[in-house]
Write a structure and sequence with these properties.
The radius of gyration is 13 Å and the shape is globular. It is mainly beta. It starts with a strand and ends with a strand. It has a six-stranded mixed sheet. It has a four-stranded antiparallel sheet with strand order 1-3-8-7, with no helix packed on it. A hairpin with a 4-residue loop joins strand 7 (67-72) and strand 8 (77-82). Helix content is 4%, strand content 46%.
Length: 120
């Protein structure tokens, strides 16, 4: 399993970023996928997940209405569109296999992550 994230950066509050996660080494379309983030000094936080077909997204309350998860199974790529970013969204974001449930059990593969910094 290889997951490579990109698209992070520094943005002002209220700004937007789009993260991508290129997947390889497994049959991407058969796996639910998620985004997880970890802020400095804090534990990992599940942010969003999506079902295998891409039609059913799930979101943490902290990002609901601001973030949109999507996937392209033909391109083996997972996305996270982040709008109206807030300083508290600052974290290392990484994609994982599985759903919120597998995240809580610690049963997932993850990439190295991409840093998102929201600051004025």
């Amino acid at each position: 399993v290889q997951l490579v994230e990109s698209g992070g950066g520094m943005v002002q509050p209220g700004g937007s970023l789009r993260l991508s996660c290129a997947a390889s080494g497994f049959i991407f379309k058969l796996f639910e996928m998620s985004w997880v983030r970890q802020a400095p000094g804090k534990g990992p936080e599940w942010v969003s997940g999506i079902n295998t077909g891409g039609g059913i997204p799930w979101y943490a309350d902290s990002v609901k209405g601001r973030f949109t998860i999507s996937r392209d199974n033909d391109k083996n790529t997972l996305y996270l569109q982040m709008n109206n970013l807030k300083p508290e969204d600052t974290a290392l974001y990484y994609c994982t296999t599985g759903s919120e449930v597998t995240f809580r059990y610690g049963k997932y593969s993850r990439g190295q992550g991409t840093q998102v910094t929201v600051s004025s």
